Amino acid sequence: MPHTLKLRDVVLAAALALLVPFAATAQDKFPSRAVTLVVPFPPGGSADALPRIVAEKLRERWSQPVIIENRPGAAGSTGSGSVFRASPDGTTLLATPAGPLAINGLVQKTLPYEPLAFVPVALLALSPTVLTVRQNFPANNAVELIAYARANPGKLNYASQGPGSTSHLTGVMFTQQTGADMVHVPYRGTGPALADILAGNVDLFFDNLGSSMPMHRGGKAKVLAVATPERSKLLPEVPTLREAGLRDFSSSTWFAIVAPPGTPAAVADQVNKAINDVLAMPDIQAQFETLGVQPRIVTPPELAAFIAGEATRWADVARAAKIEKE
To answer: Sign of dihedral through CA atoms 236, 184, 211, 39?
Structure first.
C-alpha cells in the first residue's frame, strides 16, 4: 500500500508539472481579444486624452486592439453604468475621473451602478486642484485672499464646472474651512468657467492644474495656491493652501481605471501591472506632464482605499453644505 501511494504521488506531481506551464501560457496570452476602455465623457480633455495615451502602449504590449469608447451622459453615470453591467472578464474597463466613482452618488438621486462595487484596477494620474483668480484680483497669495474674503462677505464669487463637481465641492470646502461667504457661479464645464476668469467676470475658480497652468504662466490669470498636501512638481514655486493655514485642505482631480463587479483579482492584477509598466515609461511621463498631470503607480488594494477615502471626504463636505440630490 505505501508503494501504491508513492506511485500515485509521483503521477500526480507529473501531471501538475505539465499543467503549470499550460496555465502560465494561458495567462501570458491575456487578453485573448480586444479590450475596450469606456470613457464616460466626450472626446477632448484629460479624461479622454490620458486613456488614449496609455491605450497605445497597451496595444503594443498585448498585441491586441485597445479601443477607446466615449459614452457621455449624466456627468459620467451613463458610461459608468454600461461598464458596471459588462462581462467581468477584464475586456471592458472604465477609465474615468473622480466624479462617477466618488461624487455622483452625492448629487444624483439615482445611479445605474454602485460606485464602490467596481473592482479597482489602476490609478492613472493625479492633477492638483489649484486656486486660480482673475489677473487683476487684489490678492497675490492665498493668505491675502482669505483675509480679503473674510473682510468682504458676500462680495466674492467662485466659478465651478457645475453643481456637484470637484470644483464646486472644493469651493464649498474652502468656505467651510475659512468662514468666507462667497457666491457660487456654476458653469457647464471647465472651458466656460475659465473663460470668465480670463475675462474678469468671476473672481476665482478651483480648477485643475493642467488647464490653469498655461494661463498662469502666460500672465492671463493667477494661480495663488495648490490644494494638495504637497506642492506640485509642475509649479514648485506656488505654495499649498495648507501653507496658508488650512491644515487639512486637500483636493485633486484623479483618473482611475476600474472593472465590472466580479472581475477576478488575478485579472485586475494583470491589467494593473501592464498599466503601471506603461506609467513608468519616460515618454509617457513626459506626455502626462504636458497635460499637467502626474502618473501614480498603485496596487488595486491601494486604489480601493484611495477611492473609499475620497468618497468619504466629499460626502462629509456635501453633507455639511446640505447639497441636495437632483
So the answer is: positive
Look up residue 76 and give its three cell numbers: 459620467
How would you write the chain as a 3-class SS string? CHHHHHHHHHHHHHHHHHHHHHHHHHHHCCCCCCEEEEECCCCCCHHHHHHHHHHHHHHHHHCCCEEEEECCCHHHHHHHHHHHCCCCCCCEEEEEEHHHHHHHHHHCCCCCCCHHHCEEEEEEEEEEEEEEEECCCCCCCHHHHHHHHHHCCCCEEEEECCCCCHHHHHHHHHHHHHCCCEEEEECCCHHHHHHHHHHCCCCEEEEEHHHHHHHHHCCCEEEEEECCCCCCCCCCCCCECCCCCCCCCCCEEEEEEEECCCCCHHHHHHHHHHHHHHHCCHHHHHHHHHCCCEECCCCHHHHHHHHHHHHHHHHHHHHHHCCCCC
At 185, list the grid cell.
457661479
In this predicted structure, the answer to whether residue 171 has a pLDDT above a threshold of 90 is yes
- Residue 69 CA, chain-centre distance (Å), reads 18
Distances from the Cα of 270 to the Cα of 118, 257, 266, angstroms: 16, 13, 6
For the chain, which domains are there?
34-126+252-321 (3.40.190.150), 128-226 (3.40.190.10)
| Confidence (pLDDT) at 9 | 52
Asked if the peptide bond before residue 31 counts as cis, ω within 30 degrees of 0, the response is yes
**pLDDT tens string 3-14:** 444 555 544 444
Q: What is the mean pLDDT of residues 227-246?
A: 93
Report yes or no: 256 and 119 within 8 Å, Cβ to Cβ.
no
pTM of the predicted model as reported, rounded to 2 decimal places: 0.79
Average pLDDT of span 82-96: 97
Which of 66, 310, 35, 14 has its CA nearest to residue 169?
310
